# Entry
Amino acid sequence: MSLDKATVARIAALARIKVADADLDKMVGELGAILTWIEQLNEVDTKGVEPMASTVAMELHQRDDVVTDGGYAAKILANASEPVARGEGGFFTVPKVVE
Amino acid sequence: MSDPAFLGLAEAAELIRAKKLSPVEYAQALFARIERRDAAYNCFIALTPERALKSARDAETEIMAGRWRGPLHGIPYALKDIIDVAGLPTTAHSKILADNVAQQDAPAAARMVAAGGVLLGKLATHEFAIGGPSFDLPWPPARNPWNRNCIPGGSTSGGAAGLAAGFFPATLGSDTGGSIRNPASFCGITGMKPTYGRVSRRGVVPLAFSLDHVGPLTRNVRDNALLLQVIAGHDPQDPASADRPVPDYAADLDRGVKGLKVGVIRHFYAQDLKRGAPEQVAAIETAVTMLADRGARISEIALPPLADFNACGQVILAAEAYSVHEAWLKERPQDYGARGRERLLAGATLRVADYLRATRWRRTLCEAAAAAFKDIDVAITATSVDPACRFDDTATLAAIYGRQVLMPFNVTGQPALSVPAGFSKDGLPLSVQFVGHPFAEATVYRVAQAYEAASGWADRHPPDLAV
# Structure
C-alpha cells in the first residue's frame, strides 16, 4: 500500500502530532515501511498463540528462606499489662475464655 | 613506554598486573591520542580527564600495594552516551536530553567502576540509539576509521569507531535491532549482544523494552569475554534481568571446536538478502570451512525468513519506542534531528492490536528458532551482507540498515557475536556472526575464538592510524 503526502498529513493530525511540511516526504517512506510490516503481520496465523512478554523464561526473584527478624520475646512482652503478660516460656498468658 | 593505543584489554591487564604498564601513563597516552585524532572521527561527546586520572592514580596505588582487582583494573574504557554515570550528562546524542545529568550509575557502569576501570568519556551514538548518522544534532556523527568518508554503523557508532581508532580497548553499547553488531561489523571489531536479561539495562536510555540489550565491544574475542564477565549478572531492580549464575566466560576459550556442532544459517545471507558483496559471502563460507577443518561438525539449518523477523521486530520496536518518546514528540518535535524524529513518529500510527499480534508472532518465531537450534551448539551466519557505505551515498545509506542479519536475535533474545572476517576490495572490514543458545555465551566465545585464531583477522588496524 502506498501513501501520499495528504494522507500522511491527515494521519498525523489524527494521531495529534505535528509534522512539519518539510518532514512529510520522508514520513511517507517511514509510514510506507510500517504498512508493509503490518501487511506481513496480517498474513500470519496467530490463532491460539499467546503474546510473548519476555524471550527468557523468568521466575520471580525470591529471597533466601531465612529468619531475618524475631528473637526478642522480652521486648514484645514488655508491652503487655500485668497480670496478662509474664507468662511462662516467653508467651502471652490470657484469661481462660471457654469452659 | 611504547604506544599503547592498540593494546588489547587482556594484554594490557597482564602488563598492569606485572607493574610494567602504569595506568596513569596509559590513560594519559590515550587522551593525547584522542586529542590529536578524534577531530577526524568524532567518537567522543564528552571527555572526563580529571575523573579518569583520579581513577588511574587510585588503580596504580592499589596495584602497587598488591591489591589487583582483576582484568579491568586500571584499564581505560568509554561508554555510549545513553548509559548513566552519576554526575555526568546522559544526552543520548540529542538536544532533548542535552541537560540531563544522571543521578546514579547504571548498574553496568557501576560494575565497570567496581572492577577498577578508568572512564575516559561518553561516546557518540545515533540519536536515542535509532535512525542513522545525522548532521542536524548538537554533536556530529562518528566516522569510520577505515575510511572517514564512510559510516561507522550504529547506533553504537562512537564505541566501534573509537576501538578501531585505538582510543580505548573496551566499551559498552546497546543493541535493540543490531546496534552493537552492526557497527562492530563496519568497523572491524568484536561486539557481543548477550542473552536478553544477562546484563542489566537499568540506567540505560530505553529504546524498546523487550528488545533492548547492553553488551561489550572490544578488538578481539578474549577481551570481549573478559568484559562481559565484568558486566553480567542479576539486577533485582531491572524487571527483565535474569537471576542465573554467571559462568567463567574465558575458561573454555581455547578448547577448540572439535566435536562442536555448528549450524550454518545460509538462507539469511544467500537467499533472503539479495546481492550481498561477493567477498562478504565468501568470507562466511571460508569461516565455515576453517571450523570444519578444525573438527567442528557442520550442518545447515533453516529459520523462518529474515523478513518475518524484521517485520515482527520492527513493529514491536516502533510501538515500544513511541511509548518512550510520545510526550517529547508532541511537546518538542523540533528538538529531535530529522532522522530520529521520522523513525520515532511512525510508531504513532500503530494500533494496540498490531502490537499484540506482533508479540504473538514473536512466540511462533522464537519457537521455530529454538527448534532449528535443537541439534546444534552454535550457528554461523552473516552480520551484514555489505561493507560500510559512504555518508554521501544516500541511496545505499537508505537501504543498508535493512540489509543486516541482526533483528532475528533481538526477537529471540539469543546471544550473538559479530567478529571481523577480513576486508573488501576497498579495504573496508567484513564480518561474520556467531549465535548461541540462551545464556550460552561461553560456547559462542569458544567457537569465535577458534575462528579468530585460525583466520588472524582480529587486531587489524587502519593503516593511517598505525601510530
Remarks:
- Residues 5-42 of chain A form one domain.
- The mean pLDDT of chain A is 81.
- The interface with chain B takes residues 11-12, 15-20, 22-23, 26-27, 29-31, 33-34, 36-38, 40-42, 44, 46, 49-56, 58-59, 61 of chain A (CB under 8 Å).
